[in-house]
Records
---
Amino acid sequence: MGEKPIKLLVVDDQNIVRKGICALLKQVDDIDVVGEASNGEEAIAQAKTLNPDVILMDLVMPKMDGITAIERITVLQPHIRIMALTSFVAEDKVFPAIKAGAMGYLLKDSDPKALVTAIRKVNYGEPFLHPTVAKMMLQELGQPAKQPLTPDPLTEREEDVVRLVARGLSNRQIADQLIIGEATVRTHVGNILSKLHLANRVQATLYALRTGLTSLDEIDGNNDQ
């Protein structure tokens, strides 16, 4: 038997957009659209009732915006992966969404294949940043740092792991590439996040970009897969 379909909740205040996304994704075999919501309050309620694996979250909505909903769902149900899906690429939307706990950030004008790829990656806890967003965040962070950003620097093996995390590889793929156990990869990832005081793999990706451990070209190439 194959893996269970990804349970997906779609949140967007525009009915046409939301219905269109749902219709598109219902044609994908490994994605099960379990519910819809039109604002942040509904998203929190639906997340509690449906317990989805992934939530596609619009950011600008009435009653409660997506960023607030991301923050609250991340606290209440931290196992749920959330991806921001929006028309906006402004700094006051991107950075708060990532800080709130979003595992990915995709623009609504993206290719449908990119949307499906993003959902799959985020479901496995892998970061997914639209190239425009990644470039903007890198510009905000500045040029690659020459000095470590932590008083407790990463080991050479941890640098190998964070580099592969930034390229969007799963723990299993990292284990296969480095010829180590998957449990060892999980330990390394936990140590990396702890050392760098980071919340998730998206923030680890930004660290890798900031320090020059990887490049936007490498990340974009993996996102296209």
Note: The first strand starts at residue 6 and ends at 11.
---
Amino acid sequence: MGQIFIAALKEETPNLKHFHYSGVGKINATIKIMELISKFQPNEIINYGTAGSTNQNLSGLVECTKFVQRDMDARGLMNFKLGETPFDTISKITYSNEGYICASGDSFVQSSVEIDCDIVDMEAYSFAKVCKLYNIRFKCFKYISDYANENSNNDWIDNCSKGAKLFSEIYPQLKI
């Protein structure tokens, strides 16, 4: 199989076909993508989903090309930086200098985050790292559903499915 399309939840992809679903969070994302790689041996994985923006001027569908973990915090151990995994050679993943920085973590963001990023989600770092380790092309598109603030929970519920239409417009260009 050449490509795999993956999202966290079916609710993010109404009327979109050919998607696999990981569930929410970095562990679920890692387990699912490893299962899919083992079964299909793809040469490209494309992630679509929702995300909160840390920039009030960012909206719509965006492409993420840089990925960090916003909740990896080992700063108290030998002066590691926020987002740096101790004793791991891969902490920040960059596929291109064009595009946005996505910071993944296992919490739903409703306030500012300490790490430098444009958007926040709960799965993309896991997908990106596994693809990097297995030399699989990776593309990531996120629909800005909220602004990572005190209104995020209601905004996400209201906007969760709205980005699928925008993604469907670029979908034909992504198919190989």
Note: The chain is about 25% helix and 25% strand.
---
Amino acid sequence: MLILLVMSGAAAAVRAVMTNITGYLAFIIPVAMSTGAALGLNPVVCGLVVVVVGDSVVYYPAGSASGVFIFQRAELRAPGVLRLGLIMTAITIGLLFTVVLPYWSIVGESLTT
């Protein structure tokens, strides 16, 4: 679980730097899956964890094409969006460990191989 927590934090840090979701996913999924497999974890779970952490959050108003229009019309500022993104990251990681991982275990995707 600690390794998954570190992986989630690292994925969130990479997502904060990479504003393009496609680039983030293309970069981070293979890294997470190979790292998880090398550490004896289920690579599918590791890949899904970084997808959930990275896809749930927007740190910048221009982080997505649709977000540009929404944030401009709502007159939101970048610091407010970043603050919300950090809060959503904490909520996402919390839900990942309390809801998502137990659910995946129930449906047959355990954390270890």
Note: The chain is about 75% helix and 0% strand.
